[in-house]
Amino acid sequence: MIAVRHAEQADASELVALAAAVGREPGNWLLTTEAWRPIADERRYLKTVRRHADAAVLVAVDGDRIVGRLSLARDPHPASAHVADLGMMVAASHRRRGIGRMLLEAAVAWARTARVAKLELHVFPWNEQAIRLYERFGFEREGLRRSHYLRDGVAVDALLMAYHLPSEPGFPPSRAP
């Protein structure tokens, strides 16, 4: 049974291994083509995130194995503090089993608690499987950022997608009238 929970410092080595495995896949799903950060840096990052209300790292766990990760961070600018950026990865062995959706649902729950009205993400235009998942969940394409990232010295595009949380009393409106 898959469970979603907040990441802990003790998850650092598994999270680094997950990122390395996804990064080695031929689909070029991750921004970085280098190794993920070292385990000690990941542990420090997770410790910092656990203390910070404006960020979270969620993990999907199958038994005792981490099979997915979703990171969230609120935009630091006051004019866009109602927006949070997210990044997600799921182990190849566990894709198409609803784990991405579970992580996104947990992200929406976090956003409500954090009073975030909009979740944004970048996805490579060739990652059609992820794009379909995001669109089925309710994300909309907001634009194409041409040559936005450098991967191994090559400029690549990024599709910008966003999910607007339903407006609730006291929340910033998710869209202008």
What does this structure look like?
- The protein has 177 residues and is α+β, with helices and mostly antiparallel strands.
- The protein has one domain (2-164): Aminopeptidase.
- It is built from 4 helices and 7 strands; from the N terminus they run βααβββαβαββ.
- It has helices at residues 12-24, 39-50, 99-114, 128-137, and strands spanning 2-6, 55-62, 65-74, 83-90, 118-123, 140-151, 154-164.
- It has a 7-stranded mixed sheet with strand order 1-2-3-4-5-7-6, sandwiched between helices.
- Strand 3 (65-74) and strand 4 (83-90) form a beta hairpin.
- Helix 1 crosses helix 2.
- The chain starts with a strand and ends in a 13-residue tail after the last strand.
What order do the SSEs take from the amino end to the carboxyl end, as H and E? EHHEEEHEHEE
Q: Could you state the CATH homologous superfamily?
A: Gcn5-related N-acetyltransferase (GNAT)
**CATH architecture verdict:** 3-Layer(aba) Sandwich
User: Given this structure, which CATH class is correct?
Assistant: Alpha Beta
- For the record, give the distance between the C-alpha atoms at the N and C termini, rounded to a whole number: 43 Å
Largest sheet: 7 strands, mixed
Shape: globular
Query: What is the count of structural domains?
Result: 1
Strands in their spatial order, largest beta sheet: 1-2-3-4-5-7-6
Approximately what portion of the residues adopt beta-strand conformation? 25-35%
**C-alpha Rg (nearest Å):** 16 Å
- Structural class comes to alpha+beta
Helicity range: 25-40%
Q: How many DSSP helices?
A: 4
**Strand runs, count:** 7
**Poorly predicted parts:** none
Mean pLDDT: 92
The CATH topology comes to: Aminopeptidase
- Tell me the quaternary state: single chain
